[in-house]
Specification:
Blueprint lengths: L2 E6 L5 H12 L2 E4 H8 L6 H9 L11 H17 L4 E4 L3 H4 L6 E7 L2 H12 L3 H23 L11 E4 L5 H13 L8 H22 L8 E6 L2 E8 L2 H12 L6 E9 L4
Parallel strand pairs: 1-3, 1-4, 2-3, 4-5, 7-8
Antiparallel strand pairs: 6-7
Helix pairs in contact: 1-8, 2-4, 3-4, 4-9, 6-7
Length: 270
């Protein structure tokens, strides 16, 4: 594997482990802030993008479109950042924003509460009760966030390729074990097939972002898949005429040779 996503609870040691893995494998190590900064180049404020990644939506936001826009821009920025492989990403929902398969290895780090409390106290200078409250609040927010946006349980181990519990394994030992495993995977050297997978993922995300930023199509919420220059878009549009605009915008994305909109359905017929 050449793209590693590290998911973890607050103060579970995931950041330290990600940095250790990157050093051992000679990969780049990037975090949420790198992705937010890149996504903000489209004109959205970094604060709004961070909130979209950190905080569960309010009741009002569940009926608004901005959350979709923010996540679309973040996904496009992340896929573009990691498309050349050899990278470790530690940040919210990396395992969900990047499609499973190919060179993407989804790692989950868990740690005992006492481990997390101590780390939280050391970093934030909180007393014990404050640290516990902080950890619980952050974990609940992330759980609500992933359930609302993706309909999945953030802690469900089936969404990860490997789950490491740091209760009886040191971070250094876990780092050695994971690095050894990664070196044995087919995509570690990032050959043509792995590159093609990441190119398709990045292209689909770029098309989705262009549609979200283009005023005539900015109200749409669609799913996009790409394969070798062919793009398939599915979802709903308000009018039949909107389909032509979707095809035009998607077709102008670099590398797109064909746009399939057979599964793009108008809500209102002429």
């Amino acid at each position: 594997m050449s793209v590693i996503t590290v998911s973890r609870g607050t103060f579970s040691g995931g950041k330290i482990l990600a940095e250790c893995l990157a050093q051992q494998l000679e990969y780049r190590c990037i975090d949420r802030d790198v992705i937010v900064e890149r996504a903000a180049a489209s004109g959205v404020s970094q604060e709004e993008l961070r909130n979209a990644l950190e905080k569960p939506p309010t009741l009002l936001e569940r009926f608004q479109h901005r959350k979709y826009l923010y996540l679309t821009l973040i996904q496009a920025a992340l896929t573009e950042e990691v498309r050349t492989g050899r990278v470790v990403y530690h940040g919210n929902a990396g395992h969900l924003l990047l499609r499973p398969g190919g060179p993407v290895f989804r790692l989950r780090i868990i740690a005992p509460l006492e481990f997390r409390i101590k780390m939280c106290q050391d970093r934030l200078r909180l007393n014990r009760s404050e640290a516990v409250a902080y950890i619980q609040r952050m974990d609940q927010d992330r759980q609500k966030w992933t359930h609302y946006l993706y309909g999945v349980d953030w802690g469900d181990p089936s969404h990860y390729d490997l789950v490491i519990n740091l209760e009886h394994v040191s971070i250094d030992a876990a780092c050695d074990m994971i690095a050894h495993h990664i070196r044995r995977q087919s995509c570690h050297d990032f050959g043509p097939d792995c590159q093609a997978f990441m190119n398709d993922l990045a292209q689909a995300s770029q098309v989705k972002a262009k549609l979200a930023l283009h005023p005539p199509t900015s109200d749409l919420e669609v799913e996009v898949e790409a394969a070798g220059g062919s793009v398939r878009i599915r979802g709903r549009v308000l009018r039949v005429q909107d389909i032509d605009e979707v095809v035009r915008v998607a077709g102008q994305t670099p590398g797109v040779s064909e746009v399939n909109v057979e599964q793009l359905v108008p809500s209102v017929h002429p």
